Every structure is written in structure tokens, then in C-alpha cells.
Amino acid sequence: MTKALPNIAVLGATGVVGREILNILEENKVQYNSIKFLASARSAGSTIEFKGEKHTVIEATPEVFKDINICLASAGGETSKKFAPIAAQYGCVFIDNSSAFRMDPEVPLVIAGVNDEDLRKHKGIIANPNCSTSQLMLPLKALDEKYKVKKMIVSTYQAVSGAGLKAINELTDNIKTNLVGMPYEPSAFKYEIAFNVIPQIDMFCDNGYTKEEMKVTNETRKILHFDENVKISCTAVRVPVYIGHSEAVSVEFENEVDPNEARELLKNTWGVEVRDEISDFVYPTPKDAAGKNPVYVGRIRKSIAFDNGLEFFCVADNLRIGAALNTVRIAEKVIEMELY
Length: 340
Ligand SMILES: NC(=O)c1ccc[n+]([C@@H]2O[C@H](COP(=O)([O-])OP(=O)(O)OC[C@H]3O[C@@H](n4cnc5c(N)ncnc54)[C@H](OP(=O)(O)O)[C@@H]3O)[C@@H](O)[C@H]2O)c1
Fold this sequence. Notes:
Blueprint: E1 7-11, H1 16-27, E2 34-39, E3 47-50, E4 53-56, E5 58-59, E6 70-73, H2 77-89, E7 93-96, E8 125-127, H3 131-147, E9 149-158, H4 165-179, H5 211-224, E10 231-238, E11 245-253, H6 259-267, E12 272-274, H7 286-289, E13 295-302, E14 309-316, H8 320-336
Parallel strand pairs: 1-2, 1-6, 2-5, 6-7, 7-8, 9-10, 12-13
Antiparallel strand pairs: 3-4, 9-11, 11-14, 13-14
Bound molecules: NADP nicotinamide-adenine-dinucleotide phosphate.
């Protein structure tokens, strides 16, 4: 007998990621019994439009989770730390976009289509990976299955939307101010982001890497079940792009890799779209990726720095695959696998 459709809730429904989750729930025609729109007391009572109808936003309180089966949460780490354990106690599956539980060994960290079987181990909380890790997992899993990853170096070019609405507005204001030759005092970023790049995302760790960079190392290992012998290093850079993270990736494999074969493999990988015709100047850019679901891969070539090495450029909409899309896909898997 199939399970009854779940009661679902979107926590952080009024935020940048929450609104994208609502768009994708509608686009993907996700089936549910009922839906609630949760935010803080600030937005409670306001209305939100979903599927052409207006709905009232409800304040998130512990009691709200009593009759919710699946919660898609993007309301910040502190809110998740407060509500996820309570929701789990009530039997709700809490799919979390924040970094609060990602490295908790009891919490599966999942990219739908990559490590779905890890979902079976959930104890009420499931974590969605960081955006720069997320987009890399679909192509990397396919390449790893064939050639076995030994070492990887990633350089990111990350859009301002990854830092929320305030950062999006700061890029616009900063550009306008620069164009009329006025001074600008940044607040979302340490330095001016207009006509600039900033080699710092999140705080610095003791080893000189930033937290964002270490997320790529640690989360990749957890999702793909790599051991400590697989070496991964990342430099994360903020660039003046609104939507779409780009990554230059160099990978060394255990096995010999042929770029033409790798290109064909990626062409046949679910969730990945290859854009790689250099004779026609075809390669992915963030402007093309914004608002779309695939992870775009191009500039595939044999590395001249590594033995058995491959270089590629990978671009995706950070608000989609890096956050909202994967959250919805996880919810769809939880429903399909009847894990609620
Ligand atoms: N932006 C990205 O690309 C991205 C990517 C991956 C993950 N994330 C993560 O997703 C989360 C949200 O990011 P965002 O960019 O969407 O932020 P945002 O636009 O600032 O939205 C935050 C949302 O959380 C709600 N909220 C805040 N405090 C709350 C509380 N105490 N109780 C209930 N709801 C509360 C807000 O509701 P009110 O309207 O009531 O304030 C709002 O709906 C963060 O954890 C972020 O790290 C973001």
C-alpha cells in the first residue's frame, strides 16, 4: 500500500532561497496533502503567492511541526539548530539548507541523483550541501566512477546572490556609485565588489583556508565517500556576477583519462549538460546558467599539469542546484522512497 501524501512546510518561505523553493515546488508539480509557509514573527501574517493563490505566512514555533511530515528549511543556521531537533522529535523530516548539520555524522548530506541511498540513514534531519560543493557533485561522481579521483584543485568564481539579498543590492549600488565617480563604503563585503574580485568567502580557518574553501574539501569527501587519501584544495573567490557560480576544476585520477571519452560520459550524465565546442566558442557562462537547472560543463581538456589529469569549467545557478532545486529534489526522493 502506498503511503498517504505528506503535509509539507517551507521554513524561510519569504527569503531568497525560500521563494525559489516555492517556484520549483510548482514547476516540478510536487505532490503533497497540505502546505504551510513559515517565517519569523517579522513576516507572520503577511501573504505569499503560490500557484496563483495568496497564502498567509505563519510564525515558526515548535508546535507548528506537530503535523508536518516534511519541512524544506532555509532560514539560517540558528533557526535550524532551534527547530530541526524538535521537528525530528515530532516525526517530521527536516531538510536543511544551512551549514548547521552538514558535517554531523548522524545527518546524511545529499545531492539528489548522487548519493540517494544515504537518505535511508536519516534520523529526522537531512542536510543540503554548500552551493560550491553541490554543483560539482554530479559531474565529479560520474568521472569518479569511471576514473577514480585521486586529487582535485578547484578555483571558484562565486556570484553575490550566494550571500543573500543584501549582497545583491550592494553590487547594484556599488556599480552605480562607481560609474558617477563617487566613493562607496561596502558593508556586505570587506571590499568593493563592483569591478573587482574578492578572494575571501566566509571567515579564515587556522590553516589559512576560508570556511567556504574547507566546505568544498570536507563536504565532497562526505558525499562521495572519499577517504583522507583523496586530496582536495579550493580557492573561493567572490565576483561581480548576480547569479551563477563558476568553477575551474583540475582533477587527477588513478586511471588514464581520455577527454573525448570523458566528454561523452558527461553528456550522458543526469543533471549535467555539456557545452564544449571551442571551435565555435561554445562554453558555459553564468549568464546562460541563471534560472536553469542543469550543471553546465565545458572547456574539457587533458591536463598538462597532472598525469591522468582532466581540466574543466563548471557553471550552475547557485540558487537552484546550490540550494532550492536540490532541497526540492531531496523532498521528492524522500516521498518516492517513502522515508517520511
Ligand atoms: N543564498 C544562497 O545562495 C544560499 C545557498 C545555500 C544555502 N543558503 C542558506 O539558506 C538560508 C537562507 O538564505 P537566504 O539567502 O534565503 O536568506 P534570506 O533571504 O535572508 O531569508 C531568510 C529567511 O529565513 C527566515 N527567518 C529568519 N529568521 C527566522 C526565525 N528565527 N524563524 C523563522 N524564520 C526565520 C526569514 O523570515 P522573515 O521574512 O520573517 O525575516 C526569511 O524567510 C541560509 O541558511 C543560507 O546560508 C543560501
